[in-house]
Design a protein that fits this description.
Layout: H1 3-16, H2 18-51, H3 59-67, H4 73-123, H5 126-130, H6 134-176, H7 178-184, H8 188-225, H9 227-232, H10 236-288, H11 294-335, E1 358-365, E2 375-382, E3 387-391, H12 398-403, E4 413-418, E5 421-422, H13 428-433, E6 435-438, H14 449-453, H15 462-472, H16 498-510, E7 516-520, H17 528-542, E8 546-550, H18 554-557, E9 562-567, E10 570-575, H19 577-583, H20 586-602
Length: about 600
């Protein structure tokens, strides 16, 4: 990612808080002004002590003398001390305002970017997540974003502060003694050369650290999600050893960056120390030769010390910027990814309601250009209000077929129509809000059963929830839960059985009162008796809506208005239950096998 793109991306967020940033810069200027005024007061006080009142004729002394015309030397010294305290106090006040303002802005920008990042992730197509690791996406939202925040807060604040202090302190040093100021600049070319060399290494090293941090985060996330498999196969030690290797690599990369940082700071401090020796040597000679006075030398030393901090801080600030820009590039990689499936200029936003007639016309689909076709020339029509059942062997394309209806994927050739509208012209929100979908892999969120059921509605009513639980037959199990509907189900619904998770997911689908109901093998984990009860409830529900049921069980699909058999991505059989039995094909074989299994179970 180019830095120019990173800067333009960050500018969008900085522009939102431009007036707050302006106030922060004003506070930086005031802080710097009071900071740089203190050495001049010190110079005036030392000259007053050295030469007495009559010979100290700078503007600070004249100002104090005009305020206190009858004051003696002791009183004037006290006035100098009080003036230093006053200036230091104002410096502290404005430094507080500076930090509070600019660091506060960085936190607000962090908040905005994180919200936009999450919202962008929500907009991306399902195909994007198939090539991404969850841990990597999380690392960009946490570790990388923290680096960006540090650049936008301390990075901006110290960059402006150090530049202002450097320029003004250098001007004042030339004002005091230009000859000595030229000697003080001797280390600067060496500092600039070393900083330039090491910052390139810092950028590369930090980028490698962030990439490794993503790998470690992904490893942890994957293991926590699959902890039952790890324990079932007694692979704890293997996973611990694998994590140690990745964590060791992360530590090594951090140590490498720490070594570069230490070199950067150490070299700068050594060169600043050489500058101090030069000033002491040349400045001492000029004081002895009476070419400058002691107060000027002391003030010059203080200004040089103020100058040395920007030299050291500048390397640290550039380090923050290098890290921040590297992380911004990683975040921009996600922001620059556009969803494959989205509303386009061809979308007809006048389509607001759907009846539910679904038609596939010569639909073919593959997950990528390199992968084989999963669906091949599918032609299928489902009249509104009818029930379609889909059966077929594993890998035949059943789930892929139904995933095309809510546009989780788009077909490569052919088209899908709902109510004679090409689904690519139907607004995504309209399309998906009319579909109730229970996927094959049941997923529940880490919240209560009530919240999981009502996930598709803003404010589901109690009667709506009760009706949905009765339809899915989960209502009978609620008495077993400690807090009924308000029972927390744990991550991915880990505290529920497979059947309970499926029935909760069915409740989530039917509570939305969808025009099109899709159940993808949604009854595979329930027993046959519960399945029959659920189907009886669903029949009433499905009378007035288009329903699509995917199942391996004949008992689940036999009452459908139409049944299709998929094999190797093609429809090889279609018709009613009785018609398919008479064909003596795949469906008939599946039916006889399941009848035999049922008979054996009864025995």
């Amino acid at each position: 990612m180019k830095k120019a793109n990173s800067f333009s991306f960050l500018f969008l967020y900085l522009h939102r808080y431009r007036w707050t940033l302006f106030r922060g810069i004003v506070f930086i200027i005031f802080t710097t002004a009071f900071q740089l005024f203190s050495p001049w007061i010190l110079k005036s006080a030392i000259n007053f002590i050295e030469f007495n009142q009559e010979k100290s004729l700078d503007f600070i002394h004249e100002w104090l003398h005009s305020l206190l015309p009858a004051a003696n030397s002791v009183s004037l010294l006290i006035a100098y001390a009080l003036l230093l305290i006053l200036v230091s106090s104002f410096q502290g006040i404005f430094r507080y305002l500076m930090r509070n303002t600019l660091i506060g802005v960085s936190r607000k920008i962090e908040y905005d970017i994180r919200n936009d990042y999450f919202a962008h992730l929500q907009s991306l197509s399902l195909s994007f997540y198939q090539g991404q690791k969850t841990g990597d996406l999380m690392a960009r939202a946490t570790n990388d974003l923290e680096a960006v925040r540090s650049m936008m807060g301390p990075g901006i604040m110290h960059l402006i502060s150090t530049v202002v202090v450097f320029i003004v302190a250098l001007m004042l040093m030339f004002r005091i003694d230009s000859h000595l100021a030229l000697w003080a600049l001797v280390p600067l070319p060496f500092i600039a050369f070393i900083v330039n060399r090491l910052l390139k290494k810092i950028h590369r090293a930090f980028k490698k650290i962030q990439e490794q941090f993503s790998t470690v985060t992904a490893k942890v996330q994957e293991n926590l999600s699959g902890i039952r498999i790890v324990k079932a196969y007694v692979q704890e030690k293997h996973e611990i050893d694998a994590f140690k290797l990745q964590n060791r690599e992360l530590v090594d990369r951090n140590l490498s960056l720490a070594f570069i940082r230490a070199n950067l700071r150490s070299v700068i401090e050594i060169l600043v120390g050489i500058g101090t020796i030069i000033i002491l040597w040349q400045g001492g000679k000029r004081v002895i030769q009476e070419e400058m006075n002691l107060g000027e030398l002391v003030a010059f030393f203080v200004y040089f010390n103020l100058l040395s901090w920007p030299m050291i801080a500048f390397g640290w600030v550039l380090n923050l910027w290098q890290q921040g820009l590297a992380s911004t590039g990683r975040i921009l990689q996600i922001f620059d990814t556009k969803p494959d499936i989205r509303d386009t200029p061809q979308t007809d936003f006048g389509i607001r309601t759907l009846r539910g007639e679904v038609e596939f016309r010569n639909v073919s689909f593959a997950y990528s250009a390199e992968s084989p076709m999963v669906l091949k020339n599918i032609n299928l029509k489902i009249p509104a209000g009818q029930t379609l059942a889909i059966v077929g062997p594993t890998g035949s394309g059943k789930t892929t077929l139904i995933n095309l209806i809510p546009r989780l994927y788009d077909c490569q050739s052919g088209a899908i129509f709902i109510d004679h509208h090409d689904i690519r012209r139907i607004p995504l929100k309209t399309l998906r809000s009319h579909i109730g979908y229970t996927p094959q892999e049941t997923f529940l969120f880490s919240m209560s059963i009530r919240e999981n059921i009502g996930f598709g509605l803003c404010m589901p009513s109690i009667p709506e929830i009760e009706k949905a639980t009765e339809t899915s037959q989960i209502r009978a199990d609620l008495d077993q839960f400690p807090e009924g509907l308000d029972t927390m189900v744990g991550e991915r619904g880990i505290t529920l059985s497979g059947g309970q998770k499926q029935r909760t997911a069915i409740s989530r689908a039917v509570i939305c009162d969808p025009t099109i109901l899709i159940l993808d093998d949604a009854l595979s984990a329930v027993d046959t008796h519960t399945e029959e009860e659920i189907l009886n409830r669903l029949r009433d529900l499905m009378q007035h809506r288009t329903s699509i049921i995917v199942s391996h069980r004949i008992s689940t699909v036999k009452d459908a208005d139409k049944i299709i058999v998929l094999r190797e991505g093609k429809i090889i059989e279609q018709g009613t239950h009785d018609t398919l039995i008479d064909l003596k094909g795949y469906y008939h074989q599946l039916y006889e096998r399941q009848m035999l299994e049922a008979s054996l179970e009864e025995l």
